[in-house]
Design a protein that fits this description.
By secondary structure, the protein is α+β, with helices and mostly antiparallel strands. It is built from 15 helices and 19 strands. Strands 7, 8, 9, 11, 15, 16, 18 and 19 form an eight-stranded mixed sheet that branches. Strands 1-2-3-4-5-13-12 form a seven-stranded mixed sheet, with helices on both faces. Strands 6-10 form a two-stranded antiparallel sheet. β4 and β5 form a beta hairpin. It is globular and about 60 Å long. It starts with 6 loop residues before the first strand and ends with a strand. The mean pLDDT is about 95.
Length: about 475
C-alpha cells in the first residue's frame, strides 16, 4: 500500500481521509514496513466499510491487517443502532468467535522438556484435529441447542472444567443474546460431532515457554515469569460458525436490497441492527460465540487431562480465553457520552484496559490478557489492554501475525514434510493432521509478528507483556 494515499496522524497511525460516500475516515495502525506490505485491497475494503450506515468514528485496520471478505482481516468498526447502524456478515467472518485460550502449567521449561515427545504424542492422540475432525461428544439437536444457549457454562455443567474457570473467559463463558431458533438445521447438523475438536487451517494447540518478560507487574498478575510453560489453544465455532455465515450472507443480501443500503462489495451485505433480519443474525452470532466458547472449554479440559497424566504436578491453570471474530454490544464513550454500540471485530481481539468491570479481579489493575499468535517457527506474545486502546479503537488490538501469502501460494512454495523437518531442526515438534496443512502454515507465509506486536505496543492499542517461543505444535 502506498503511504502517499494516507495522512500520518501519530506514531504508527495513518488516516484515510473522509471522501465521497465515506461517513467516517479510515485508520490504519502500522509502521512504514507493515504499511508497505499491506495489499491495496485493505485500503479499498476499509474505505467501503467507512461508507456503511451508522458507523461511528472510523473504520479501522489493525497492524496485522490483510485482505478478507468484505472487511479486511484485522478490521474493526462500531455501529450505533440509534443512528441507523448495521450489522454485517463481513464484519464478523465465517469462523465466528475464533479465539485463543491460554493455560499455564506453572512449571519450568526444564521440567517439561524430558517428557515433551511423550506429551506431544498423547495430546495428538487425544485432541481431534484436521478438516472435518470429530470428537467423542455426540449431541442430539436439543442438546446442541443447550450448547448454543449456554456456551462454556454448558461444558462446565457436563464435567469439562470447573466453575472457577468461567471468570477467566470473556463474557464469563456465555453470551446471553443467543437464540438457537435463528440457526439453521444444516448448521446444527454439521456441528453435532465437532464440540471438542481443533479443526484445520491456522488453528493450533501449541506448547510454549515464556522467553522474555517486558512488563513485570502485569506478568506477575497473569502468573507468568521467564521459563514457565504455557499451552495455547486457537480455534473457533467450527462448521456451525461457517454455516451461519453462509446462511446469513443470503438473508442480509436480501435485507440490504429491502432497506436500500448501498453495498460496495458482496461480502459487505448487512441489515439495520434494529431490523428483524439484523437481530436474527445477531442472535445467531451469539450462538456461534457460545459454540466456540464451549468448544475451547472442552479442549482445555481434554488438554488438562493429558498434561496431568504425563506431568502430575502441572496445574494447567487457565489464564484467559478471548475471541477475535465477533460482533458484540458494548458501551463506549462517543463525544463524551456513553453509547451502546455494536462492535465488529474481524480478526481483531477485544482488549479491555485496566479497571473494566468485565475483567477478573486479579487482572483489573493491569488490563485484560490477549494472546497474539505468531508462527509455529518463531514466537507468539501475551499483551494487555490499555486505556489508550479504548480511545483509539474501542478496546481492540491485533490477533496474530497476519498472512503475507495465500495458502495456495504457500502450497506452491513449500512441502509439508520439509516444514516439519525445518521445525525439527530448530527443536520444535510439529504434529500435523495433514502434510498439506503443514505446508499452508509455513512460518514464512506470515508477517513478522515481532513488528506487528511492536507496532501495537507503540501505537498504544495494547502493551507488551511477554514473548512466548514454541516447543511443540499440533496443527489440523
Amino acid at each position: 500500500m502506498e503511504s502517499a494515499k494516507l495522512n500520518k496522524v501519530a506514531k504508527c497511525i495513518w488516516q484515510i481521509p473522509k471522501s465521497g460516500q465515506m461517513k467516517v475516515p479510515g485508520y490504519i495502525f502500522a509502521d512504514k514496513v507493515l504499511l508497505s506490505e499491506m495489499d491495496d485491497k485493505v485500503f479499498t475494503q476499509l474505505t467501503n466499510v467507512a461508507c456503511l450506515p451508522g458507523i461511528v468514528k472510523a473504520a479501522m485496520a489493525m497492524p496485522d491487517a490483510h485482505w478478507g471478505y468484505g472487511f479486511p482481516i484485522g478490521g474493526v468498526a462500531a455501529f450505533d443502532p440509534d443512528e441507523g447502524g448495521v450489522i454485517s456478515v463481513g464484519g464478523v467472518g465465517y469462523d465466528i468467535s475464533c479465539g485463543v485460550r491460554c493455560h499455564s502449567l506453572d512449571m519450568k521449561k526444564e521440567e517439561v522438556m524430558p517428557v515433551l515427545p511423550e506429551l506431544m504424542d498423547e495430546l495428538f492422540r487425544s485432541i481431534p484435529a484436521g478438516v472435518g475432525s470429530t470428537g467423542k461428544i455426540r449431541l442430539t439437536a436439543s442438546k446442541l441447542d443447550d450448547v448454543l444457549r449456554h456456551g462454556a457454562q454448558w461444558a462446565v455443567d457436563h464435567g469439562y472444567g470447573n466453575e472457577h474457570e468461567l471468570e477467566y473467559i470473556e463474557e464469563h463463558g456465555r453470551i446471553k443474546d443467543a437464540d438457537p431458533g435463528k440457526v439453521s438445521s444444516m448448521a446444527k447438523e454439521r456441528q453435532k460431532k465437532q464440540i471438542g475438536t481443533l479443526g484445520s487451517g491456522n488453528h493450533y494447540l501449541e506448547i510454549q515457554y515464556v522467553d522474555e518478560v517486558f512488563d513485570r507487574e502485569t506478568a506477575t498478575a497473569f502468573g507468568l515469569n521467564e521459563g514457565c510453560v504455557v499451552i495455547s489453544i486457537h480455534c473457533g465455532s467450527r462448521a456451525l460458525g461457517h454455516q451461519i455465515g453462509t446462511d446469513y450472507l443470503q438473508v442480509l443480501g436480501a435485507a440490504a436490497k429491502k432497506y436500500q443500503i448501498p453495498i460496495r462489495e458482496r461480502e459487505l451485505v448487512c441489515a439495520p441492527i434494529k431490523s428483524k433480519e439484523g437481530m436474527d443474525y445477531f442472535k445467531a452470532v451469539g450462538c456461534g460465540i457460545n459454540c466456540a466458547l464451549a468448544n475451547r472449554q472442552v479442549l482445555g479440559h481434554l488438554t488438562r487431562q493429558v498434561v496431568r497424566k504425563i506431568l502430575p504436578k502441572a496445574s494447567c491453570r487457565l489464564i484467559y480465553d478471548v475471541s477475535h471474530n465477533t460482533c458484540k454490544v458494548e458501551k463506549h464513550k462517543v463525544n463524551d457520552k456513553m453509547h451502546k454500540l455494536y462492535v465488529h471485530r474481524k480478526g481483531a481481539t477485544r482488549a479491555f484496559g485496566p479497571g473494566h468491570k468485565e475483567l477478573p479481579r486479579q487482572y483489573r489493575e493491569v488490563g485484560q490478557p490477549l494472546f497474539i499468535g505468531g508462527t509455529m517457527g518463531t514466537c507468539s506474545f501475551i499483551l494487555a489492554g490499555t486505556d489508550r486502546g479504548e480511545e483509539l479503537a474501542w478496546s481492540s488490538a491485533c490477533h496474530g501475525a497476519g498472512r503475507s501469502m495465500s495458502r495456495r501460494a504457500a502450497l506452491k512454495r513449500w512441502k509439508g514434510k520439509a516444514v516439519i523437518n525445518s521445525l525439527k531442526a530448530k527443536g520444535i515438534i510439529l504434529k500435523a493432521a495433514s502434510l498439506r496443512g503443514a505446508a499452508e502454515e509455513a512460518p514464512e507465509a506470515y508477517k513478522d509478528v515481532e513488528r506487528v506486536v511492536e507496532t501495537t505496543n507503540e501505537s498504544g492499542l495494547a502493551k507488551k507483556v511477554a514473548r512466548l517461543k514454541p516447543l511443540g505444535v499440533i496443527k489440523g
